[in-house]
Write a structure and sequence with these properties.
Layout: E1 11-17, E2 28-31, E3 35-36, E4 48-57, E5 62-65, E6 69-71, H1 73-79, E7 86-87, E8 94-95, E9 109-118, E10 126-130, E11 138-143, E12 149-155, E13 166-169, E14 177-182, E15 189-194, H2 202-205, H3 215-223, H4 243-253, H5 274-282, H6 302-315, H7 342-350, E16 357-358, E17 364-365, H8 374-387
Helix pairs in contact: 3-8, 4-5, 6-7
Length: 390
């Protein structure tokens, strides 16, 4: 029996490269003359999708270019050609014929390199928040890793919240003193010069002080370090005085003695006035506006000042009443003094601490519930220091 032997068809190996993608794919073997399909790409690359393959003939390092055949990378670059893109479609059929080996008899493997297309970027914004500080704006913004960002809100810098200041160097007749202000939020400090007591004129120090009825009180309090300016070249004579500030002034007069313990007040948020209020509370100089509140930022009224000063006289200075309480009926609004403040107001008027305020109609009123302006407080304190606390 005659037999005819047939030469086996040549087989070729197809390799797959992720080209910066992650993962791996199995090799594929094809036979000359057979049809074959490329598998779907299973490589992954963040932010990209595979759109197909470029094929390289490993034996001679050439790439397939449609209508041109197999060319080197240099030829492709010089001629500005594009490598053939084999679609990332497993249903596409190709025939492995002689065109695959054209010009290279030693070829046995081919590498298909993944071709990637960048996906449209989808922003992934992360919320960032920074609270405003005294000197720096705050914000709420959203930031993407790509660098894109947008602001939801911007909060302006708060600015410093200066306390009423503490005399850190007493002035003398020939040497200036120093008052130091501290920010209640960030603890930053600034200073103000207290002129030498022998030659000071507060109208030259402050742009808003004139030689009117309040001048002597302001002059006295500034030169004695009892009160200071606002740190900006002004005294703010018509500005209000808070409950915390009047207590701090008395605490300064006592030389800021060391204190320890606690108060029942839950609304004391700033550190600068806490020692003064504790001292005043422990020495029966002040009481709260309720069993648990002090209202430190509330403007102090004229009748409250009368109570605080008389309490200071009796409980700290240990004074005895040697004067006759004043008759408040001499004032048109004398009956409007609160019951808890009546006795203190009688003492304050008798001692010349509070003399009433002249209204536009020329009548002098006690104005007991009126807020005490800084110039009024300066006058009261001058009278107190000169006539009472000698």
């Amino acid at each position: 029996m005659n037999t005819t032997s047939q030469t086996p068809k040549q087989k070729y190996t197809l390799l797959f490269d992720g080209n910066s993608g992650s993962g791996s794919m199995s090799n594929q073997v094809v036979t000359m003359g057979d049809k074959f399909a490329l598998p779907s790409c299973t490589f992954t690359r963040e932010g990209y999708r595979c759109i197909g393959w470029n094929v390289c003939r490993n034996a001679d390092k050439t790439w397939y270019v449609a209508k041109h055949g197999w060319l080197t990378q240099q030829q492709i670059t010089e001629q500005k050609l594009e490598k053939k893109l084999y679609a990332n479609d497993s249903s596409a059929q190709y025939v492995f014929d002689s065109s695959w080996t054209q010009g290279c008899s030693t070829v046995s493997t081919y590498t298909f390199h993944a071709v990637w297309e960048q996906l449209p970027h989808a922003h992934n914004y992360v919320r960032q928040e920074r609270p405003a500080t005294c000197t720096q704006d705050g914000y709420v913004k959203y930031v993407c890793a790509c660098g894109s960002s947008y602001n939801e809100a911007v909060y302006p810098a708060l600015g410093h919240d200066w306390d009423s200041g503490t005399v850190t160097k007493e002035p003398t007749a020939t040497e200036t003193g120093v008052r130091t202000f501290t920010c209640t939020r960030c603890s930053a400090t600034k200073t103000e010069t207290i002129p030498a007591t022998g030659s000071v004129d507060v109208t030259q120090m402050f742009t808003d002080v004139t030689k009117n009825w309040a001048y002597p009180g302001i002059q006295y309090c500034v030169t004695h370090g009892i009160m200071g300016g606002m740190g900006d070249g002004t005294f703010a004579p018509t500005g209000t005085t808070t409950r915390a500030q009047i207590v701090q002034i008395l605490y300064n007069l006592e030389g800021t003695p060391a204190v320890s313990g606690t108060t029942p007040f839950t609304d004391l948020t700033a550190n600068w006035y806490k020692p003064a209020i504790l001292w005043a509370y422990q020495n029966n100089v002040v009481a709260g506006t309720s069993p648990t509140t002090f209202a430190p930022d509330q403007p102090v009224t004229r009748e409250q000042i009368a109570v605080i000063l008389t309490q200071y006289m009796f409980h700290v200075l240990k004074m005895e009443r040697t004067w006759t309480p004043a008759d408040l009926s001499a004032f048109p609004d004398g009956a409007q003094v609160s019951g808890w403040a009546k006795e203190a107001m009688q003492d304050a008027v008798a001692l010349g601490l509070i003399n009433g305020t002249k209204a536009s109609d020329g009548v002098v009123y006690l104005d007991p519930q009126g807020s005490a302006a800084r110039q009024q407080v300066a006058t009261i304190l001058m009278n107190f220091c000169q006539n009472v606390k000698k």
